[in-house]
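wait is this the right file?? whatever heres the structure
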């Protein structure tokens, strides 16, 4: 898969995800005050939002990384304030921006690597996400983007800045009471597994999703060890409905690729089990599995149900592929 296809996939995943994440994920990540968040979205429900993952929630970290996986140029950002590209893999905001707004924190979640950030920017939350990343370290390595381990190291650096600027007590509050939003894994299956042979030579899809689940467990254990206690994790979307997957695996009618979608569902079942296990092991924390697969499948196959404008935008994207 070439860079253009990779970035196009990232953009389309973001298009699907904005609606779903802002209506499901946000209300759950606000765990103890769901009703307040729904009734008074501007009331601050957490001190900060801290985001990890891939292009769906990368607000521009890749601008500051030596990688070809970038979107800091037109036409990206054409619906953003000032119609300027920001490094977000979409035309406007990414889902974590909407989440921060609903939490009553701020309009936009900045990229942690943005050198212009102030202490106040840091105090209300940042994103460490990097477009092209995955649970599998090979996914990030192949594109020279930030792996989840890299993102955790940046998180530790961030916490040191908070401690130095705001004190230990404030840092402890931010660590334990912030909403943690994680969205990652699509690139592992769509790109690392199905689009390149490296992993397929050694793993069938069941073994590979087992590998992903082990990496996921290690990552969430590390977040817990550092102090995270309110963690919302998005499932994989129906990856087989991405244009590239429809082209490569959808047959002459370019239907959604069953093999890619089945792989996503297989991993989702294992991710859900990992989070259930972590919840039992750490009863003082909330690890919440957020199923976007089924909601997105409904949107993809029944777009008119969600409004004429949505239908008109979604269908041409599929036809262009």
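ok assuming it is, sequence goes like this
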């Amino acid at each position: 898969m070439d860079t253009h296809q990779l970035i196009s996939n990232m953009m389309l995943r973001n298009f699907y995800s904005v609606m779903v994440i802002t209506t499901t994920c946000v209300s759950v990540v606000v765990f103890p005050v769901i009703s307040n968040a729904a009734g008074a979205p501007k009331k601050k429900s957490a001190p900060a939002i801290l985001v990890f993952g891939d292009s769906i929630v990368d607000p521009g970290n890749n601008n500051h990384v030596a990688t070809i996986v970038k979107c800091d140029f037109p036409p990206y950002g054409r619906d953003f304030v000032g119609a300027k590209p920001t490094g977000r893999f979409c035309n406007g905001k990414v889902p974590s921006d909407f989440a921060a707004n609903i939490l009553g924190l701020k309009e936009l979640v900045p990229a942690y690597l943005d050198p212009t950030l102030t202490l106040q920017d840091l105090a209300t939350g940042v994103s460490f996400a990097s477009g092209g990343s995955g649970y599998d370290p090979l996914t990030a390595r192949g594109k020279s983007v930030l792996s989840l381990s890299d993102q955790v190291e940046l998180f530790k650096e961030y916490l040191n800045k908070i401690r130095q600027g705001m004190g230990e007590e404030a840092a402890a509050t931010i660590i334990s009471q912030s909403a943690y939003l994680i969205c990652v894994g699509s690139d592992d299956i769509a790109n690392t597994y199905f689009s390149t042979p490296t992993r397929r030579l050694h793993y069938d899809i069941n073994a590979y999703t087992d590998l992903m689940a082990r990496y996921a467990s290690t990552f969430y254990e590390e977040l817990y060890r550092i102090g995270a206690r309110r963690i919302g994790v998005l499932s994989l979307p129906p990856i087989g409905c991405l244009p590239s997957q429809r082209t490569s695996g959808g047959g002459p009618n370019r239907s959604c690729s069953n093999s890619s979608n089945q792989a996503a569902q297989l991993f989702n079942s294992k991710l859900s089990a990992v989070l259930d296990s972590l919840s039992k092991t750490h009863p003082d924390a909330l690890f919440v599995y957020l199923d976007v697969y089924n909601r997105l499948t409904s949107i993809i196959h029944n777009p008119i149900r969600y409004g004429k404008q949505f239908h008109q935008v979604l269908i041409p994207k599929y036809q262009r592929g």
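The chain has a mean pLDDT of 84. so i think its the right one actually
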